[in-house]
Amino acid sequence: MSQVTQAQADRLAAAFAKTKGRAALIPYITAGDPSPQATVPLMHALVAAGADVIELGVPFSDPMADGPVVQRATQRAIEKGVGMRHVFDMVQAFRESDKTTPVVLMGYANPVERYGQLEFARKAQEVGVDGVLVVDYPPEEMLEFARYLDDVDVAPIFLLAPTSTDARIQKVAEIARGYVYYVSLKGVTGAATIDLSEVEQRVQAIRRHVSIPIGVGFGIRDAQSAQRVGQVCDAVIIGSKLIETMEEAVARANGHEADQAAVKAAGAWLAGIRQALG
């Protein structure tokens, strides 16, 4: 294994190891939002605020699993011309000064297919991506792509839902690496109230099959909900409220240094979440 891929193989494991009993914090942002030039500074600001892993959304015109907040962010990025090549460039630029924080690309199959699965895997490794989560690739359709990712030590990451059967969880367990992402609510991102007791039961059920960390997302909107969810899982994943926080900052800035305002607001808000996790 090359030095580069060895570093990638270690980054996700190291991120979870260093949390020392607390849940890891994984913010989600859309590449290119609030602007292409703000994305890398935003990633650094999130790390400074306490992010352990960053999920970077790949813009796609039909984000079926995303709610209106993430859809708006995606649309803004697309309108600015952000595509897969730009996402890779952003990760590469981030890696120039951050060699340790894992970056997971999250998106849909269509952009991967257009790029080419093998070419995508190789480019992801080249620029320093640590994991890939393709929302609409079920595990049985992911086997070849997962092998491509494994060959370059990029972790294939999967979603599990309240409706996932034991058979589906077992299939995911066989090929997933890095962590699995448990969707705590039925519906789309940004949905309503989370049921902690149900989340705890489902996480326990998933642990019977899965030995890697389990992150929980959807429905986490503040320090209190993050703290509660963090007590029953290995990572708290949060996106919609973070994006809303940036939207509000941009609106207040009214065009004047809007990017800086968004980055500052995002960092300050995430620092509060990080503090709540311990």
Automatic annotation (TrEMBL):
<dbReference type="InterPro" id="IPR002028">
    <property type="entry name" value="Trp_synthase_suA"/>
</dbReference>
<keyword id="KW-0456">Lyase</keyword>
<dbReference type="InterPro" id="IPR018204">
    <property type="entry name" value="Trp_synthase_alpha_AS"/>
</dbReference>
<keyword id="KW-0822">Tryptophan biosynthesis</keyword>
<keyword id="KW-0057">Aromatic amino acid biosynthesis</keyword>
<keyword id="KW-0028">Amino-acid biosynthesis</keyword>
<comment type="similarity">
    <text>Belongs to the TrpA family.</text>
</comment>
<comment type="subunit">
    <text>Tetramer of two alpha and two beta chains.</text>
</comment>
<protein>
    <recommendedName>
        <fullName>Tryptophan synthase alpha chain</fullName>
        <ecNumber>4.2.1.20</ecNumber>
    </recommendedName>
</protein>
<dbReference type="Pfam" id="PF00290">
    <property type="entry name" value="Trp_syntA"/>
</dbReference>
<feature type="active site" description="Proton acceptor">
    <location>
        <position position="55"/>
    </location>
</feature>
<comment type="function">
    <text>The alpha subunit is responsible for the aldol cleavage of indoleglycerol phosphate to indole and glyceraldehyde 3-phosphate.</text>
</comment>
<feature type="active site" description="Proton acceptor">
    <location>
        <position position="66"/>
    </location>
</feature>
<dbReference type="InterPro" id="IPR011060">
    <property type="entry name" value="RibuloseP-bd_barrel"/>
</dbReference>
<dbReference type="InterPro" id="IPR013785">
    <property type="entry name" value="Aldolase_TIM"/>
</dbReference>
<comment type="pathway">
    <text>Amino-acid biosynthesis; L-tryptophan biosynthesis; L-tryptophan from chorismate: step 5/5.</text>
</comment>
